[in-house]
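During the no-cost extension, the postdoctoral fellow (Dr. R.K.) reprocessed legacy sequence entries with the updated structure-token encoder. One reprocessed record is reproduced below for audit purposes.
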Amino acid sequence: MTTRTLADWLQYIERIHPRSIDMGLDRIRVVAQALKLGKPGRAVITVGGTNGKGSTVAFIESIARAAGWKVGAYTSPHLLAYNERVRIDGADASDDALIEAFEAIEAARGDTQLTYFEYGTLAALWLFERAKLDLAILEVGLGGRLDATNLIDADVAVITTVDLDHQDYLGDEREAIGAEKVGIARAWKPLVLGDDDPPSSVLGHAYRIGAPTWRIANDFFFKPLPPMLDADGNAQPGRWQWREIGKRLELPMPRLAAPVQLRNATVAIAALRALKNRPKPLPREAYGDGIANAHIGGRLQRFERDGVEILVDVGHNPQAARALADWLRAAPARGRMIAVYAALSDKDATGVVEALAPRVDEWHLAGLADAGPRGADVDALAARLAGTAAANGARHADVAQALDAARAGAEAGDRVLVFGSFHTAATALASLARD
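Re-encoded structure tokens follow.
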């Protein structure tokens, strides 16, 4: 029998199920039982929400590792390599480890058809259990209630934000979407909420099952601190404050850019503090070290080429675009602001462009025809954007070409922002890595 490579396995698991998304827990539960999977770590935190999930996971992971915990993190989607989805002790899973996990799943599944995401979730859980983790962090893929990660009972559930996205699966308004996302909460286990105004569906479900809620701006708070000057009058590195009743932490600013990252860091701290049975102590200094060192690709990731600042961001819905606009307003470019935008066909492209249009001087649109069934060519994207500021932007077949054109027309002091999806960010990062 020919041994499959990781690339072979990924091609195989993409086609084994007739649908790329088929929400539900029945299939994955059957295979998990056949694998005899137990709890993936001594403690489990599951992170759901519309935006900010990946960054919040990165902060939780970094703080816990700074405290000396052995941590596993399962995230999706990946940017450059599938291995990024499964991290143990800060290192991406090796090809051999993932292949071993997929082989075990294949031997156990029998006639059960699994989706690509279900295979990946089971592989992460299988590897985590064998690693004997102190903490497993699971990022929800889509929604919550019927997501494969909800197979596991979380000790702490987190909902970062609730906004419109994936309406075909989750509903057309925040109450319906919130009802799906809060499905990750468990009876009598803490639910941490990073939304200033969570839908009543979220709060009502938490109340009915007895899940104590930790709400931002109600139970825990954050604020930037005014800059301090040294003896020579020079401004010191920025600081911010995390606070709950009876507890204050003064912390360094995150390495991750954008004002929204303070909110994500705040939620991450609350999630760890809500954990009742901590596997190990969580010393005060771990918070600052973890916040300062947390990193995740494609979140306003910065490059400079010939005096031109290039930012790459995975933002793909109106809420994320509003956060980007806030950052651009707070940190304006010295020169022109040039946007390279490519979006999947099921996203609210108009809402995204309208949120950013006041901050953009020039638009470049790109196709994502190679992004699978949800991809689209550039003319289709331009048609969806009719009537917006981006509709008459330059059109390019793919992101790499659009980025090349934007850079060719940029001068020192200009800023190029490449955004719109994980596919967009991944192509841009690969292109920049070749420079």
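Residues 203 and 213 are 8 Å apart (CA to CA). The chain has a mean pLDDT of 93. The remaining legacy entries will be reprocessed before the final report is submitted.
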